[in-house]
Amino acid sequence: GSVLDGVKVLDLCIILAGPTCGRTLAEYGANVIKIDNPKRGTTVSSHNEVNRAKRSILLDLKTEEGLNVFWRLLEDADVVAQNYRAGKLENLGIGYEEVRKRRPDIIYVSLNAFGHLGPWAGRPGHEGFAQATTGMDRRFGGDGPPISQPNAINDYGTGFMGAYGVALALLHRERTGQGQHVDSALAYTAMIHQSPYMQLYEGKTWDETKGQDALGDGPLHRAYRSKDGWLFVGVQEPDLPRMAGVDGLSGIDSLRGEALTKSLEERFQSDTVQAWVQRLNDAGIGAHRVLPAVNELLDDPWAINHGLSVTREHDEIGLVTGFGPSPRLSRTPVAIGRPAPKPGADGREILEEIGLGHEFDGLLERGVILTDGVAAG
Predict the structure, then answer these.
(1) d(Cα 190, Cα 130) in Å, to the nearest integer?
(2) Which residues of the chain are modeled with pLDDT < 70?
(3) If we measure between CA atoms, which residue out of 119, 136, 117 comes closest to residue 189?
(4) Lowest CB count within 10 Å: 32, 40, 167, 260, which one?
(5) String of b and e for 95-107 (b: at least 16 CB within 10 Å)?
(6) Which pLDDT value is given to residue 262?
(7) Which residues of 341-369 are buried (b: 16+ CB within 10 A; e: fewer)?
(8) Residue 40, pLDDT score
(9) Contact 16, 50 (CB under 8 A)
(10) How many CB atoms lie within 10 A of CB 68?
């Protein structure tokens, strides 16, 4: 079985970072129940992407009856995941301190923009704020105005770091019986992504690669244009003589800096991407074609055969192709899990498991539970 078989997770998260934590735990075997607010909407693509492998219930936690369902679900839960700003769930009576009174060994993971400690803990925030407050926009913009990194790297990174924190907390609990609070934040993750630059010492020069025109961080580690496209080359300076032995690159080992860059730019124009990548790889030099379109990866037979690209039927949408989970464990296989359910689709089943199946229709009638709606991300 999967490594987290038997671990029950209550996922109260919205948008990207928090749901990514729950999705990651689900793909490694956890029983993840996604609890969404019936009164909040979001995009379908976000829901299908971050809520796969989970089951869904639309439950109004602002009602006494909704909270009662939550407490019943908690009785045999191992993990609660939430990504509201500090204080939000405390106001509902389901913050960490309240939850641990009922379940002292619970692992409660909080994921938000600025963490749950310090002067910014109560501020709202998302990916854009994490980039702005940690200098990412400035680095990406270079000498021009600040520019946002288009990929939500801190959202996803925070979800993965949250899942990593939960895994460590589960290990600790197995050894000691103790639960704990795990704090993961977009701002923390943004600093991890920039850790090579985030060092202060006497004589430090801030000369790291930056800006939209950067093709790499030096002549031996960057993208070059060839006759029919782009390739990325990565080589250490001691390996320059070996690179100079490649057909078409003789003499480059005597060059450095701008002269080396100019020479390589000219030479790589003389042949195709495929020819250069083949020659360089044959010589043990790192080189790869710069991918022109993502769908090429998703259509790759090797990626499909290894579960890194997966096509499945989704409710009301049809066939959707997406990426499969990583990393891979040799003894405890990963499973992408079923496609994201229609929001609220599993409400009756989830209530039956905790002995409240007989209350389902009444809760539905009173709007405490919905069975069909556009759920939160």
Answers:
(1) 6
(2) 40-45, 373-377
(3) 136
(4) 40
(5) bbeebbeebeebb
(6) 98
(7) bbbbbbbbebbebeebeebbeebbeeebb
(8) 66
(9) yes
(10) 14
Report the half-sphere exposure of 286 (CA within 13 A, side-chain side): 11
pLDDT score for 317: 84
Q: If you compute the radius of gyration of the chain from its CA atoms, what whole number of angstroms results?
A: 25
Token pair in block for residue 89 = 């769930």
Q: Please provide the distance, in angstroms rounded to a whole number, between the alpha carbons at the two ends of the chain.
A: 28
Alpha carbon distance 103, 111 (integer Å): 20
Classified as helix, coil or strand, 225 is strand
Grouping H, G, I as helix, E, B as strand and the rest as coil, residue 123 is coil
Q: At what angle do helices 153-176 and 186-193 cross, to 10 degrees?
A: 110
Instruction: Transcribe 246-260 into DSSP letters.
Output: STT-TTGGG--HHHH
- Known active-site residue 155: yes
Q: Nearest to residue 246, comparing CAs of 214, 287, 211?
A: 287
Element (H, E) at 73: helix 64-74
For residue 375, the model assigns a pLDDT of: 40
CB 58 within 8 Å of CB 82: no
Which residues sit opposite 234 in a β-bridge?
221, 286
Quick one: pLDDT at residue 376?
39
β-pair partners for 258? none
What is the model's pLDDT at position 45? 58
CA distance 357 to 352: 4
- Cα torsion angle, 297, 301, 302, 306, sign: positive
* pLDDT value of residue 374: 45
Q: What is the biggest distance separating any 2 CA atoms in the chain, rounded to whole angstroms? A: 81
Q: Which of 11, 78, 155, 183 is catalytic?
A: 155
DSSP assignment, residue 41?
A: -
